[in-house]
Specification:
By secondary structure, the protein is α+β, with helices and mostly antiparallel strands. GO terms for molecular function: aldehyde-lyase activity; metal ion binding.
């Protein structure tokens, strides 16, 4: 019998295309979810890791307007950005390059986080959502847009191993192991900023009860479907969301 030497590569190629297509769908759902939650407006982008060398970023347009089936772009983790990809996607590159456990990244414009950052403050751990960023969200103290590799490197140096970095007057970057977790953590960051701003109005007479390290470690759990329930709540109604409870956006 003659061996078909082309069968295996063809199947592998088909599998790769299917993986990219599924990742593209997942990124679209996440992008629209973040926009519906008010965490981005005309500006913002999100991405998912494909492998050790590539990630896929959503289309370069307002995330809430990304249509069903609208393709994103595969971007190399090492190398120049492809044509048409937004300049601040360099931030995604830096995170994927340095942190192999990261599977998804968002560059967002959460409004309360932005307001708090103009005071050179980032959200404290005052309630549950804030504990996921202990020992504290780093601040990139520069309101300028990121338009060079050197700037992107410096921002992600500041971020370190934290789940987020806040950019003064210029939004935030959030990273997590999965798309679902990235979306949930972006919402947590904004909710922590909301609570912090509310507390600041009263703190002169009623000092805030900031959770300590041990309390943060105990509270920042993923048990009880913490991430999954927030994902279900935020993504409900998206036109490309799969119905199957076992269908993952990892």
């Amino acid at each position: 019998m003659t061996q078909n030497t082309h069968a295996a590569p063809s199947l592998a190629l088909a599998a790769t295309r299917a993986d990219v297509s599924e990742a593209d769908r997942a990124v679209r759902v996440a992008a629209r979810t973040l926009a519906r939650a008010g965490l981005a407006h005309a500006y913002g982008h999100c991405s998912v890791r494909l492998d050790d060398e590539h990630f896929l970023v959503c289309a370069a347009r307002p995330m809430g307007l990304i249509g069903v089936g609208e393709a994103g772009t595969v971007v190399p983790i090492n190398g120049p950005l492809p044509d048409g990809v937004l300049g601040e996607v360099r931030l995604h590159q830096q995170i994927y390059r340095r942190r192999p456990g990261i599977g998804a990244v968002a560059r967002m414009m959460p409004p309360k986080t932005m307001s708090l950052s103009t005071l050179r403050r980032t959200p404290r751990a005052l309630h549950g959502p804030g504990t996921y960023f202990a020992p504290g969200v780093p601040l990139w103290d520069d309101p300028q847009l990121i338009r060079s590799d050197a700037q992107a490197q410096a921002v992600i140096d500041t971020m370190g191993e934290n789940a987020a970095v806040v950019m003064r007057g210029n939004g935030a970057v959030v990273a997590a192991d999965t798309l679902e977790a990235m979306v949930a953590l972006t919402w947590y960051l904004e909710d922590a900023a909301r609570v912090d701003l509310d507390v600041l109005a009263l703190e002169a007479t009623l000092p805030a009860a900031v959770l300590d390290a041990a309390q943060c470690e105990a509270r920042a759990t993923r048990s009880g479907r913490i991430i999954e329930r927030m994902w279900e709540y935020l993504s409900a109604g998206d036109p490309e969301l799969r119905d199957s409870a076992s269908d993952s956006l990892r």
